[in-house]
Amino acid sequence: MALKPVDLTIESVRRNCEGVEDSITTFAQGKWAKHKDAVYVEYDEPSETGMEGTHTVLKWSEGKLRLTRRGGVEHCQEFAPGGVSESLYETAYMSIPMSARTHLAECAMTEHGMEIYVEYFFSLGGEPQGLTKLRIWVREDS
Q1: What is the reported pTM?
Q2: Residue 33 · residue 4 · CB < 8 Å
Q3: Coil, strand or helix at 48
Q4: Rg of the chain, C-alpha, whole Å
């Protein structure tokens, strides 16, 4: 499986339980590969995310997204439409249960990359946090 260099744009919009929205857009360089019926994308988290020292791997397969983080943050979450995924979000300072109920997960392949879009409601430690809309653009380096 040959990994090719890519540029990533990651946009996250969160609406909390009071209806207040905030958003962050980050940029990263990484690698991607297609293997059988799956697409893998890997990158190091940019400092703006607060997860420095964390390596993230995305796997898109069979209509769902699996996100795995290792390093400063340890976390694995699956996003499948209509599904609920339970996990632990772990740092050197805390370990907190996280739950994600996925409303929508889509992936569109393009000539030189892909776009992933996921909407999910999540809770931390059993406390609802609101709705997150995550959009990830992956483009091969030119």
Answers
A1: 0.91
A2: yes
A3: helix
A4: 15
